[in-house]
Design a protein that fits this description.
By secondary structure, the chain is of the alpha+beta class. The protein contains three helices and five strands. The protein is about 30% helix and about 25% strand. The chain binds zinc ion.
């Protein structure tokens, strides 16, 4: 059987560990769960067939992690660099993402937040 590594806790990034409930654990006896050693958040207690036990925890992590927020912002910054985009806050309301070409603004995209403005530009350029 392959040993699948437990991914860290989705809430605090702490180490996760498998807990097997032995005799005297009441309703949980014979069950297992995966819990964070730092913040104590845990997955459901499972009984019997535990083949997908670890992968369920790891999938849960993928589902709960804030959908790669950091990664998305890195992409935005990379795009700003590669396409020479300036972000301009309008006096009130929208933000403009100005795409420069040869020292001049070639296109302007708007959004209600800086991220939206850049995303508009990315959508257009791709
Ligand atoms: Zn935790």
């Amino acid at each position: 059987m392959d040993i699948v590594e437990l991914l860290p806790c989705p809430f605090c990034g702490g180490d996760a560990e498998r807990i097997d409930f032995g005799p005297g654990s009441g309703d949980n006896e014979g069950g297992s769960c995966i819990a964070c050693t730092r913040c104590q958040s845990s997955g459901p207690v499972e009984f019997g067939y535990k083949e997908n036990f670890v992968s369920n925890w790891n999938r849960r992590l993928a589902a709960l992690a804030p959908a790669g927020v950091g990664e998305a912002d890195t992409k935005r910054l990379d795009f700003m660099q590669s396409h020479r985009v300036a972000l301009i806050p309008e006096f009130e309301g929208p933000w403009d993402a100005e795409v420069y070409q040869e020292g001049e603004v070639s296109r302007v995209f708007s959004g209600s937040t800086p991220r939206e403005a850049i995303d508009e530009a990315i959508r257009y350029e791709n």
